[in-house]
Write a structure and sequence with these properties.
The protein is an alpha+beta fold. The protein is built from six helices and five strands; from the N terminus they run H-E-H-H-E-E-H-E-H-H-E. Helix 5 crosses helix 6.
């Protein structure tokens, strides 16, 4: 529960902006420039901070970022790791999932791949309280909807 003092000192949010930006590739050009510019936010400060936070990822890795723009022209942002579907496609070595999931298998992964993706996703803010097993089950479900078969036995 938030304290009264915390509620009173919160800044009023003007907008919430959601973008997908390549890791280490934030520049004041589109899509970042127009999205932040319309709220008069400091583009260079965002670009430097975002690029510093995402330097541990390979370049061109799509990062989901949520920016809270406040009425005093300041901002805060959170960066999430790439989507589960992106990781599954990279691990399977495919461009897209199956056109007929459940009938046509696009690729096969084993539980080791699923576990590694789950370890990465566990650091995301919305997954930090989930068990590793729960995250793995969710990733297996996503793989099934993409037509990627998950082998239960490790070879």
């Amino acid at each position: 529960m938030s304290s009264v003092k915390e509620i009173l000192t919160r800044k009023p949010v003007r907008a919430t902006i959601r973008l997908t930006v390549p890791a280490g590739g934030a520049r004041p050009a589109p899509p970042v420039g127009p999205a932040l510019g319309q709220y008069r936010l400091n583009l260079m400060a965002f670009c430097k901070d975002f690029n510093a936070r995402t330097q541990k990822y390979k370049p061109d890795t799509p990062m989901s970022v949520t920016i809270s723009a406040f009425k005093d022209n300041t901002f805060e942002f959170t960066v999430k790791s790439p989507s589960v579907t992106w990781y599954l496609k990279k691990a399977a070595g495919i461009e897209s999932g199956s056109r007929l999931p459940g009938h046509v298998v696009a690729s096969v992964l084993n539980l080791k791949h699923i576990y590694e993706i789950a370890k990465i996703k566990q650091s995301d803010p919305y997954c930090q309280y989930l068990s590793l097993e729960g995250i793995c089950k969710s990733i297996i479900g996503t793989a099934n909807t993409m037509g990627i078969k998950v082998q239960k036995e490790l070879d």
